[in-house]
Amino acid sequence: xxxxxxxxxxxxxxxxxxxxxxxxxxxxxxxxLQVVRPQLLWRFNRRLQTGWVRDPDGTEPTGRGxxxxxxxx
Length: 73
Hints:
Number of strands: 0
Largest sheet: none
């Protein structure tokens, strides 16, 4: 019995590297966090900006900016 090549590829990926699966899960979690609560990521980003941005608080979006960010993803 011959299998579909796409099915063979999909079954081969299930035995893949666990680090790839972990990376994809973290990537998905950060993406969901970006849509649901972007303020949390912005607070983390603020700490990264303190060395080279004069006023990190001045670059934070307003409430409307966060709403637009949720709509656009």
